[in-house]
Design a protein that fits this description.
The complex is a heterodimer. By secondary structure, chain A is mainly alpha-helical. Chain A is 71% helix and 0% strand. Chain A has twelve helices and no strands. Chain A has helices spanning 2-6, 16-21, 24-41, 43-46, 78-113, 115-129, 133-144, 148-175, 178-185, 190-227, 238-245, 254-281. The longest helix of chain B has 39 residues, at 223-261. Chain B has helices at 2-28, 34-39, 45-55, 61-73, 87-122, 127-139, 144-158, 174-208, 211-218, 223-261, 266-275, 279-307, 309-313. Chain B is built from 13 helices and no strands. Chain B is 78% helix and 0% strand. Classes of the chains: A mainly alpha, B mainly alpha. At the A-B interface, helix 6, helix 7, helix 10, helix 11 and helix 12 of A face helix 1, helix 6, helix 7, helix 8 and helix 10 of B.
Chain lengths: 290, 315
């Protein structure tokens, strides 16, 4: 897909937004993800039923005209639970992206800019990176207790080392730029240089990484809920709905199958968006950065 | 090579220290009274007190930490409250299941991922390339534990080809082992397969642009010789690196997949411990998995320093 970004090798300066919107991957990803965001935003209007209302007359009902995607063991409407679950997933994903983006950028900037801070900060990040992310998040979420915020905190701790590493790498490059030297020669302080010159110019790879972290968080949130350390029931969460259907794969496979598809579509949209942004913003970056 | 090895070994020490600190802290930071949460609401005052003493909660945190490190150096991870036995033993007993699953999945993802990446790179932007890359992208967007459930539904429930779960030790019956591992390992491998395919394609495209590849082609060597001998060898280094990272992700994924397929591995031990608040087991499980991951990456680094002299002398 890298070729599209180079297309035409325009002598005119075309805006980043315009270039991004001309990229096929970005367009498809944005459409998919945008649709999901709309579903989540307007969940109350779109969902045909109350996601937490039991209806024992329709236990384990197959998909039909009233319950399009069937019902679970309490007779709750699967489609409505998926729609509301998407909202929970996106909310957690957004919290994780905000936290890892901001904290990672700060830690990375400190480590990349101040030599003395580099060792300690990055050793801690290496230590956190040494855990399989999902295992660290599951244990942390369990220790903190099941809730939406705690799930977001647990995932943020697991994924901050990624953003910190990427921010640091970018800062290390930008730090050596002539305009930074110029600012220093003019007598600018460290804080001013970091905030006005270094951070704004190091953000590109971080933005791409945050898209991937959003995707990872949605997958990981599903795992947390599946294991039972995510948002507590009866909150509809996508992983939770999959877990609900686990014991009914024989008689009611729709309970688990459909929420997984919703996760896959959301994550696919975000991955396409991330790949596209990477192509548009910096064609030289490679797949490795995930 | 000796200097590189020693340097690399030394750099693993602070990482392992942070790992142990985090493993300890996660449990020490549990809000509320850990003992009453573990014992449940029906516990008497004496039972609670006994549990507190057993967990060392009656001592100040610094002393607890020092004692924990002391025991750790002797290979003692404490006692499981639920299983009433040593955490180290309980984990070691289940480790073969988890490692078997992880490495079978790694094997699948390397074989199919690398092959798919090479096929895609040979004709960039062709239909084959776009198709393979679309599949890779879909693969890495699917939740692996959900895919496991889908496999169970399709291959065990509908078609009846494979068992829905359960474990057969390799030593007892290798074929039975493979049958019990086929679905979990494939579900687990798919994400990494996608990543490796993309990675292989990217580095392959890089290598195929190199002068020596053009020279090889100009000499009139057949296409497959160029792809496998000249380009293949140089694609190996980035692939080994990614495979090292994959081990960690697969280990984490295995924890969840074991749950789906009822495999008696470390993951099920840890998840069981999480659900019943058996903190020493969670602590020990975390520490051990992270240590395995650090050691694997150490081995990977040494391996490609051995393969590629540039790594040894660079930086």
């Amino acid at each position: 897909m890298a070729s599209e970004a180079v297309d035409g090798a325009a002598p005119r300066r075309v805006g980043v937004v315009a270039r991004a919107l001309g990229h096929r991957g970005v367009l498809i990803g944005l459409t998919l993800f945008g649709a999901i965001v709309l579903v989540a935003l307007f969940a109350d209007w779109i969902a045909p039923h109350d996601p937490v209302r039991n209806n024992f007359r329709y236990r384990l009902g197959a998909p039909n005209a009233i319950h399009w995607l069937g019902t679970d063991r309490f007779g709750r409407d699967i489609l409505s639970r998926i729609i509301h679950g998407t909202r929970v997933s996106l909310r957690i994903g957004l919290m994780v992206v905000a936290a890892t983006g901001i904290i990672g950028a700060l830690l990375g900037a400190l480590a990349g800019y101040f030599r003395a801070a580099d060792g300690p900060i990055m050793r801690v990040m290496d230590g956190l990176m040494a855990f399989p992310g999902i295992l660290l998040a599951v244990s942390l979420a369990a220790a903190l207790g099941p809730s939406e915020t705690n799930a977001a905190i647990a995932l943020s701790v697991a994924y901050t080392p990624r953003t910190a590493r990427i921010a640091r790498a970018a800062v290390l490059v930008v730090r050596e730029m002539e305009y930074v030297e110029a600012a220093r020669a003019l007598g600018a302080g460290h804080l001013h240089i970091l905030a006005r010159h270094i951070l704004p110019n190091s953000l590109t790879p971080l933005v791409v990484q945050c898209t991937y972290i959003f995707a990872l968080s949605i997958l990981a949130e599903a795992v947390l809920s599946f294991i039972g350390v995510g948002p507590p029931p009866p909150t509809p969460s996508l992983g939770g709905v999959i877990a609900d259907g686990r014991d009914y794969m024989l008689e009611a496979p729709w309970i688990s199958l459909f929420p997984g598809l919703m996760i896959a579509i959301t994550v696919l949209g975000l991955n396409l968006l991330g790949d596209g942004l990477r192509d548009v913003l910096d064609p030289r970056m490679k797949v490795e950065m995930r | 090579m000796l200097r590189y090895t020693l340097g690399r070994l030394a750099s693993a020490i602070p990482v392992l220290f942070v790992v142990s600190l985090v493993s300890f802290a996660i449990i020490a930071l549990v809000p509320g009274d850990m003992a009453s949460e573990m014992a449940g609401p029906s516990a008497t005052a004496e039972e609670l007190q006994r549990l507190r003493v057993q967990l060392g909660l009656d001592k100040p945190i610094l002393q607890r930490m020092l004692e924990w490190y002391g025991a750790l150096l002797r290979g003692d991870l404490g006692e499981s409250v639920l299983l009433r036995r040593s955490v180290t033993e309980a984990i070691l007993e289940r480790l073969p299941v988890t490692l078997g699953l992880t490495f079978l999945a790694l094997f699948f993802s390397i074989i199919f991922g690398v092959l798919a990446g090479m096929v895609a790179a040979v004709r960039p932007n062709s239909w084959t390339d776009q198709g393979v890359m679309a599949l890779a992208l879909i693969g890495l967007s699917l939740p692996d534990f959900w895919l496991g459930l889908v496999f169970i539904w399709a291959f065990a429930v509908q078609l009846g080809w494979l068992p829905t779960g359960g474990y057969v030790p390799f030593g007892e019956n290798p074929i039975g082992w493979l049958r019990s591992m086929a679905m979990p390992a494939t579900a687990l491998a798919l994400t990494q397969m996608g990543l490796l395919a993309r990675m292989t394609r990217a580095s392959m495209l890089d290598v195929l642009r190199q002068d020596y590849v053009r020279t090889a082609r100009a000499k009139g060597l057949p296409g497959w010789v160029v792809v496998f001998r000249h380009a293949g060898a140089n694609v190996l280094v980035p692939i080994i690196t990614v495979a090292g990272v994959s081990v960690g992700i697969l280990l984490g994924g295995a924890v969840v997949i074991e749950q789906v397929f009822s495999l008696p591995g470390v993951g099920r031990l840890i998840i069981g411990a999480i659900q019943r608040r058996d903190y020493p087991v969670i602590q020990g499980g975390l520490l051990l998995t992270a240590t395995i991951f650090v050691l694997v990456n150490l081995a990977v680094d040494l391996l490609y320093a051995a393969v590629d002299p540039r790594v040894r002398y660079g930086k």
